[in-house]
Amino acid sequence: MIKGSCCCGTVKFELLKQPSMMGTCHCSRCRKVGASTIVFVKKEDLKWVEGKEHVKMFQPEEPYKYERSFCTICGTSLGEILSDMDSFPIAANTLDSGLEIKNSFHEFVDEKPDWYEICDDAKQSKGHPDT
Ligand SMILES: [Zn+2]
Ligand SMILES: [Zn+2]
After folding, report:
1. Is there a domain that residue 121 lies in?
2. How many whole angstroms from 3 Cα to the centroid of ligand 1?
3. Inside any domain, residue 86
């Protein structure tokens, strides 16, 4: 069981299984919302404990297509935690438990600021890893 929460503790959830994958996105969008490192979770493995009603989802403006959700009390970025997809990314920052996986890719590395140096051997790509 993996526990996750926002900074103020209003939002609490659990993951019944380990996330399938961890990656880091260096695009300006992910950087600004503070959710660069994400883990992919299956919808069926996400169990809400409390605070779901305090999560607000923002739709992206063109050309961006990924929604973002936040705790409306403290602003913690929660990734796509309200998604209806079978599998979706949530911000790794929100997890309170240790994980068995490590970062396995860096995407949008061409948008990475110079002050951030990649210090692991994970695969790098300019866009999404599968493009
Ligand atoms: Zn909060
Ligand atoms: Zn991104």
Report:
1. no
2. 15
3. yes
